Amino acid sequence: MVAPPEFTTPEEFAAHMGWSARRIRQIAREHGACRIVGNKMVLTKEDIDVIMEAARPQPTKPKEMRESPASVTLEDYELKKLLDRLEALETPPSRKKRKLR
């Protein structure tokens, strides 16, 4: 991949990356990663680094953690899973007899 010049426009950077110039402008504004004079926007290498970091996907939590309070950590979740598995091993199987049909 060819490195962008020291200063570039959102359109040039978007074409370089194959992204939308509109999305680049949006991310740049949201993160303060641009220089705007009048109606012209310019990106520096530092701005591009911020935009690239903002484009990094955020890891998702397991469904059980997303639905629980924010104070629950991944360690709490893993511990609960281990305790549930241990409890299942210690619980004796049901002694009810099944009726055959």
Question: Which helices and strands occur, and which strands form pairs?
Answer:
Layout: E1 7-8, H1 10-17, H2 21-31, E2 35-37, E3 40-44, H3 45-54, H4 63-67, H5 74-90
Antiparallel strand pairs: 1-3, 2-3
Helix pairs in contact: 1-2, 2-3
Descriptive overview:
- The structure is a single chain.
- The protein is mainly alpha-helical and 101 residues long.
- It folds into two domains: 7-54; 59-91, no CATH class.
- The protein has helices spanning 10-17, 21-31, 45-54, 63-67, 74-90, and strands spanning 7-8, 35-37, 40-44.
- It has a three-stranded antiparallel sheet with strand order 1-3-2.
- The protein starts with 6 loop residues before the first strand and ends in an 11-residue tail after the last helix.
- The model has no long low-confidence stretch (mean pLDDT 82).
Quick synopsis:
50% of the residues lie in helices and 10% in strands. With 101 residues, it is mostly helical.
Shape call: rod-shaped
Structural class: mainly alpha
Any low-confidence stretches, pLDDT <50, length ≥5? Answer: none
Instruction: State the share of residues found in helices, binned by percent.
Output: 40-55%
SS field, number of helical segments? 5
The H/E string reads EHHEEHHH
Q: Count the E strands.
A: 3
Biggest sheet, open or closed, and with what strands and sense? 3 strands, antiparallel
Count of domain modules: 2
Rg, Å, rounded: 26 Å
Strand content: 5-15%
Q: What's the pLDDT, averaged over the residues?
A: 82
Strand order of the largest sheet: 1-3-2
Q: Give the N-terminus to C-terminus distance in angstroms.
A: 69 Å
